[in-house]
Design brief:
The protein has 13 helices and 2 strands. The chain is mostly helical. The N terminus and C terminus are likely disordered. InterPro entries: MFS_trans_sf, POT_fam.
């Protein structure tokens, strides 16, 4: 109970702090730094991508030197300092350009002002590198998957992690965003900074209740050794090679975290790294003289597991690109819509609430209503398969973009007819597209996160978290490239460009949405025709024993 309070307290406060910034960053960059659409999207996506690629470095430091607990502390501290810098920018007028109410002749930020902004965002990216790969893994460490009780607790851990994550987002998207938009940006950024401070304190209070594992060494170095060793022995043949020709020492029995991986026939090229080409490669104790030329079967199989993630990882990137549109262009739509309901002005950042509410509602209904009822009736495992959930998420992504395109075209036409920057169309008409984006995340993102964590053994869980957030990073960078290419191409055609400028009424954003919908359709075909074959069979297996003695099994008939 103490562990649950302290760990979830840290998790909730950290997410409340980070999302208190992310949820309204688009509005802040446009209204306080006077950025146009392309610059805004580039800054947001590059920063968002950086916050999701730094977890790879965090995972390396955690597994090699610091351990998950200390990495979490360092990451939380860096995030806190980043929020302090953002609060100073909001509170000191000289750190940002003069305020502009609209139009295209607004003062651009100075180079040094952008430098201070990037410093704050950079610290937050560093903090994310420490927190994101370790939070899920550290939480999973607290459950003993060798026992039936531990496996039962872990079974719902992923959904409930996402549920608590979403509750924090809802608070950030209501209270924090409202304060930022209608009260003060200084207070609005001060609240997340204070939350981060309390998250660190709460996490330290619960230290004595945690199961804290020691660093086991970085799997990144082991994977690099396998690749180098396999390349050095690329001329060797594996045909008719007996099993005892491979270097396969037993795992250390005292290390309960390391799961012995059996030799598999997937990605055979990497097997050459474990092939004993000459007895002289071993010393008198039977250990490799050069670990960059001869690796163990365990190291080879770990790399195979990671390579086996790539097809589904690409599918995840396709799903997350849709979510990126709502974080940038979706909020820009909200800024130029009629946000008055009677005498109350709805902050544009509140649009993300519908995404979070749909996501958390789906998880709650699925875990607390559907599953208990279905289990009573069938007495069997009635969970939706990963393929079903990912497919549903991709369909939600397609619908999201189609609906967004229709709504945007109607918004722009009404604004042009009225001859004003703001459209008379109600901001509430944006709710369906944000809701569909939330369902995309609720189905696809949760399933992909669960797949990564369960696909890899316990000793590689930090890497699983880093890979999950790396897919968000890749989607952000890919989305940045798509946005800039579309902007350049459509601007050169001589007609109305699809993207660009601070005024959405002068571009055809709806066409861009339809393009993203087409890419999501291609992702659906790619997943069902190829990458779904790489999903691991889940029937009658648990995360703790999934890879024992059987290696990596392929589900050809998912």
């Amino acid at each position: 109970m103490v562990f649950s309070f302290s760990f979830q307290g840290n998790e909730s406060f950290e997410k409340l702090a980070s999302m208190g910034l992310i949820a309204n960053l688009t509005v802040y960059l446009q209204t306080r730094f006077n950025m146009d659409g392309i610059q805004l999207v580039n800054v947001f996506n590059i920063w968002s991508g950086s916050t999701n690629v730094t977890p790879l470095l965090g995972a390396f430091l955690s597994d090699t030197y610091l351990g998950r607990f200390r990495t979490l502390i360092c990451g939380s501290t860096a995030s806190f300092l980043g929020m302090v810098v953002m609060s100073l920018i909001a509170g000191i007028p000289n750190l940002r350009p003069l305020h502009c109410t609209g139009g295209s002749n607004c003062q651009k930020p100075e180079f040094w002002q952008l430098g201070v902004l990037y410093l704050g965002l950079g610290l937050l990216a560093i903090g994310a590198g420490g927190v994101r790969p370790c939070n899920i893994a550290f939480g999973a460490d607290q459950f003993d998957t060798r026992t039936e009780k531990g496996r039962a607790q872990l079974e719902s851990f992923f959904n409930w992690w996402y549920f608590s994550f979403t509750v924090s987002l809802v608070i950030a998207l209501t209270v924090v965003v409202y304060v930022q938009t209608n009260v003060s940006w200084v207070i609005g950024y001060g609240i997340p900074a204070a939350c981060l401070f309390f998250s660190i304190v709460i996490f330290l209070i619960g230290k004595h209740t945690y199961i804290i594992t020691k660093p086991q060494g970085s799997v990144f170095v082991d994977m690099a050794k396998v690749i180098v060793a396999a390349c050095k022995k690329r001329a060797l043949s594996l045909e008719s090679t007996p099993e005892n020709s491979f270097y396969d020492p037993p795992c250390i029995e005292s290390d309960q975290q390391v799961t012995k991986l059996a030799h598999t026939n997937m990605f055979k090229f990497f097997d050459k790294a474990a092939l004993i080409a000459d007895p002289s490669e071993l010393d008198d104790k039977g250990l490799p003289k050069n670990s960059w030329r001869l690796c163990s079967v365990q190291q080879v199989e770990q790399l195979k597991l990671v390579v086996g993630l790539v097809p589904v990882w690409i599918t995840g990137i396709g799903c997350f690109i849709t979510m990126d549109q709502m974080n940038t262009f979706g909020l820009m739509q909200a800024i130029q819509s009629n946000n008055k309901i009677h005498n109350f002005k709805i902050p544009p950042g509140w649009m993300g609430l519908s995404s979070m509410i749909c996501l958390s509602t789906w998880i709650f209904v699925y875990e607390q209503i559907y599953l208990p009822y279905a289990k009573k009736r069938s007495k069997k495992n009635v969970r939706l398969t990963m393929r079903q959930r990912i497919n549903t998420g991709i369909v939600m992504a397609i619908l999201c973009m189609v609906v967004a395109g229709i709504v945007e075209k109607n918004r722009r036409e009404k604004a042009l007819k009225q001859g004003s920057l703001l459209s008379p169309q109600s901001i509430l008409l944006l709710l369906p597209q944000f809701s569909l984006s939330g369902l995309n995340e609720g189905f696809a993102a949760v399933a992909v996160m669960e797949y990564y964590t369960n696909h890899l053994p316990e000793s590689m869980r930090t890497l699983a978290g880093a890979i999950f957030f790396l897919s968000f990073s890749a989607s952000s960078y890919l989305n940045t490239a798509i946005v800039n290419v579309v902007h350049q191409v459509t601007a050169k055609l001589g007609k109305t460009p699809w993207l660009g400028g601070r005024d959405l009424n002068k571009v055809k954003l709806d066409n861009f949405y339809y393009l993203i919908a087409g890419l999501a359709l291609l992702n659906l075909l790619y997943f069902n025709l190829f990458s779904c074959r790489y999903l691991v069979k889940n029937a009658d297996k648990t995360p703790g024993s999934r890879h024992e003695d059987k290696g990596l099994e392929m589900n050809e008939n998912v």
